[in-house]
Design brief:
Length: 305
């Protein structure tokens, strides 16, 4: 059921694709076309233990010829759009390669960022749950604990959906970038679709993505919930120890879970509302012919892996 309160949240939340990994089983002709456009560099085992050849252009990495024969059954080429994928500007040659009809999504990280001008920036008051009332895995990361990071999801590598919640400004401060975000609280849902006949970049299964997004219950601020102070205290205890929920009487468990579900951030609705714009960075742009008859080029600093 759609959350009727979703639309008012659109102005307070920014959605973007943070990371996207695409794979393809290119045909011989497509491989020839790829190598005609991009010069690859052979990697030894120490440079890349997964692929024989790769090339990095701006924030786009292209890898060819997996070292693992089992991986080669499913794909022979990988394209990695690193952090802030939605802001990626492709050179025309890569835009053309993306038009191959064999690309599938191996991983996509969808980020929801909350403005610091609302209670959504209250990090200590946030609550993460699943619809069954608990989380399989929740921990502080040792590497980025100063970012107030939390991870949700199974450690099983076959898990199709995981989430990470952290303070973007704490991360920027830790990395000494000097960047300060107006939307600092990030809830990022990382999806790992199966490489089957339903998973193609040309016809993204939005229903599958929306279903996965709907399984996360995220409350940005417990204090904003229509609960008495005692129930809010119970939620804070659940936030600190998810096993505490099981110690409550069944009727109270159901009451708290119902309230959390009704007031959760409607990730799937926000995605549905924004999906057309969300993938616009993948669209093929036409080359512009200058008055001199030459194609206008986009300048990129090539970086060798």
């Amino acid at each position: 059921m759609k959350n009727e309160n979703a639309k008012p949240l659109y102005n307070d939340i920014q959605i973007s694709i943070d990371t996207m990994i695409l794979v393809a089983k290119l045909t011989y002709d497509q491989q020839e076309e790829l190598f005609n456009r991009i010069v690859f560099h052979q990697n030894n085992q120490y440079q890349d233990k997964h692929f024989h050849y790769s090339r990095k252009i701006s924030n786009v990495t292209i890898k060819v010829s997996p070292r693992n024969p089992l991986a080669n059954i499913n794909y022979n080429t990988m394209l990695i759009l690193q952090k802030n994928a939605s802001l990626t500007k492709f050179p025309y040659s890569i835009q053309e390669i993306l038009q191959f009809d064999t690309w599938k999504i191996k991983r996509i990280d969808i980020a929801f960022d909350f403005t610091n001008h609302t209670p959504f920036s209250t990090f200590t008051n946030r609550l993460i749950m699943k619809h069954h009332g608990n989380v399989k895995f929740l921990q502080q990361s040792k590497n980025d604990k100063d970012w107030q990071s939390e991870y949700v999801g199974s450690l099983n590598s076959k898990t199709e959906a995981k989430a990470c919640c952290y303070d973007r400004n704490e991360k920027e401060a830790d990395l000494s970038t000097g960047i300060e975000h107006d939307y600092p609280l990030r809830f990022e849902i990382r999806l790992y679709p199966k490489l089957n006949e339903y998973n193609f970049l040309k016809r993204i299964d939005h229903g599958w993505i929306e279903k996965k997004l709907s399984r996360f219950i995220f409350i940005p601020d417990i204090e904003q919930l229509p609960l008495n102070k005692w129930d809010k205290r119970r939620l804070y205890k659940i936030q600190q120890d998810y096993n505490y929920l099981k110690t409550l009487k069944p009727f109270k468990q159901n009451e708290l879970k119902k309230c959390a579900k009704e007031h959760r951030v409607p990730f799937e609705d926000i995605y549905t509302f924004s999906k057309e714009k969300l993938y616009s960075f993948l669209e093929l742009e036409e080359l512009v012919v200058t008055s001199s008859g030459l194609y206008e080029q986009i300048n990129f600093d090539d970086q060798l892996l």
